User: Fold this.
Amino acid sequence: MNTDGKDRRPGETARRAVTYLLLTLWALMVLFPFYWMLLTSLKSYSAYNGEYVPRFYTLSPTLQNYAEAFTAVPLGRYFLNTLFFTLATTALMLAVAIPAAFAFSRLEFRGKNLLFTLILSLMMIPNELVVITNFTTITNLDLRNSFPGLILPSVMSVFYVYLLKENFAQIPDELYYAAKVDGTSDFKYLCRVMIPICRPTIVTVTVLKVIECWNSYVWPRLITDDAAYFLVSNGIQEIRENGFGRENIPAMMAAVVVISVPLIVLFLVFRHKIMEGVARGGTKG
Amino acid sequence: MKVVLKHLTKKFPSRNKKSHEEVVAVRDFDFEIPDGELIGLLGPSGCGKSTTLNLISGLQKPTEGRILFGDEDVTDLPPEKRGVGLVFQNYALYPHLTVLQNILFPLENLRGAERMSKDEMKKKAYEIARLVQIDSLMDRHPNEMSGGQQQRVAIARALVKRPRVLLLDEPLSNLDARLRLQTREEIRRIQRETGITTVFVTHDQDEAMSISDRIVVMKDGVLQQIGRPQEVYDDPANLFVAKFLGTPPISVFSGRVQDGVLCVGRDAVLRVRGVGDREVVVGVRPEGYVLREGGPLCCRLVRVEVMGRDISVVSAHDAAQSETIRSIISAENIASVHGAEVGFGLKPAKTYLFDPETGERILFEAL
Amino acid sequence: MEKNNNKAWLYLLPALVFLAVFMVYPLIDVCIYSIEEGYNSASQTFFGVGAYNYSYILHDPYFLQALKNTLILVAVTVPLSTGIALLISVGLSSIDRLRNLYQTVYFLPYVTNTLAVGLVFMILFKKTPYSDGLVNLCISFFGGEAVDFIDGPYWAKMFVLCFYTIWIVMPFKILILTSALASVNPDYYSAARVDGTPRWRIFTRITLPMISPMIFYLVITGFIGAFKAYSDAVALFGTNLNAAEMNTIVGYIYDMLYGDSGGFPSYASAAAIVLFAIVLTVTCINLLVSRRHVHY
Assistant:
């Protein structure tokens, strides 16, 4: 049954006004740090430090900070490292998780349910636990300060296999049988039928993984102490403590803006897919 | 409580970005429902019957027109103040509450003078539950019951607050065939016992005809005809109503009246008076055919379907507006139906004339 | 179909290998580490097996401080963030214009780097010799006293940490709750209206029970996430959390593992197991509570 959306009950306009007010309040609280980030990055060093009372605007915006951000510290390097790390890890994850999800959803084999339940229970294990041993493992393999050391432990996540499996399982059996009757091999079925049909979920999973990799901090921090291998997050931390971060706040902010922009752009482009995917699966919130 | 709808109109703004036309769901509805009657709102999907129900309940506001319960104008009252009971198509029972809690829900909302003590509420709930025969299921949750049982709970919930009007939206469409027959009798019985003015919406003419005191036929938001079921069947106001009611459906032919003779194609089938020379559309009820060797109406025999007590003779005629026409004949005559052709005579009482443009009924006298 | 049997394992193999090496093996390893006493990472020897590691950390003031901080963080942020998210979601669901815009804005914190934005928060809240900082300015404007939220009293630091944590987790919760609210069949609301139900009652007797599974999910994941807080604190206070008295349990684990006082995987493992045990207990309590209050 459709009902009228608009209600003309008394007090309704007041209620609406209050609702909009509260919603706008929170929206401002969310946006303000970003605004401040951008603003500060455009203030010149002297202007910033000269302000006892921080100003909400700047009369002499400058791009000097951005130049410094890239020259005083190897921000560009961090950027490229993170880019490479993100792409490699995401690609590997897809290459590993998609076949696994396919096996669980479509193929029959002994012990399938048991294995899947076991794997699901691994989701409960906090990352912090495994990090300890992985740290030792990587150290022993002499892979600290290297890309394989960064990438390999970050590849696999049970959650993405679960999400993909659920999605694959929704494709009706009949499609599979029809393909079989047509003489299609399993692998071909996976590539030609399942992946195209499930593309939305795969896109979501990819974007989520990209966000996760880009923001990854703990693991890179643990195993890299050579600045040549820093990613943006531990790079930022490094700048903050040992670089110009202590004194040159505007340049710091410029660096922060630079590393935040790619993800924000990604989000704006893919926002519907991302929000749908997160809502559907829930995630390591 | 009688319900009066006066010039009721409901328009929706168009979703179509190209044409800015409004969708008129209900157009100038004007009728009165006498107190204590069971009314069926009947029509194909999209005819505006559900919208009319929503307007009566107050969930939607009319663009124009008034609605009165008795002598009280309720048009501006919100649903919570109108005192209607509404049974939804998919019941809308609160899944997290038991049957008893579902039925108590409306009673708990009463305030002031009407508010009862907990014991009184429970008593009332059980009373109603006994009326609809679910008093043994009070502790169950909706998902632990069959569709038919859920519906009875929904009816109980609607009735427990003694509504002035009871509204049901397609009450039988979610039930399987066997249950439908049973449940429609239940609805009739409950309505009789409580005496509450009841309006129900359906697209199934069988349902509407079998239990309603009066049926209201609608099409595209316009009221087509209102009357007792047998009257509407025997005396349709237009071609649409004639085609909508009756199983098997009425046969429709193109014909003309010439010099007092009604002709269907090349067959002169009836002598008529009171109609000038003109083109007409002829409708013949399935039970309006009489087997007659040689005419006047000569059809090509397609097949004979055995129905036990009757037979259904399926035949074809050039002037018919559909590929085949059906006639119901007593099974005693089965032997006389054979070969390639079959001849019929028409019962004048079961033959109707309609205007080819407007579909309006043309009355005539048969000779 | 028998044929599939072996091929399936081929598809699973890479995933299983990764999981085994980087998840299962560490799990077992950590348990072992935590009960090995006097582990020396240089020589990789240990004395014996026992609960020494556990007793060490339970007496370590840094661990206890971290424990306290984490518990306060959990107790404050989980109910607050869930409650505020519920309010915002209800608000969002009642408006139709601009809803998309608001949702997009609200989701921004989810895609940003916590460390990066944490820096901005730090600047806003910190009092430096140059300036009191924007937040302090507002406080003075309303007649209060300026406080250094980053280097100052404990309660101020805790406040910023809680505030920032809530800011970070809100997008996810708002998203989940808005979609939960949208999935409630509108017929229930129509039925309640026809039954004369006042607005407040609709919310408590119908809306809340209908979305209770989602609220429950958010509470559980909220607790689990809050216990694992770490990068939020680092973003605000820097890597030397002990100096700022703002360490969390996870921070302690990493300190034991790596930092200046690091090289003690046994202590780290013991702390990690303790954390795991706490989280497990809290989750179980949540599950028990849910039986009564959550309706599926």
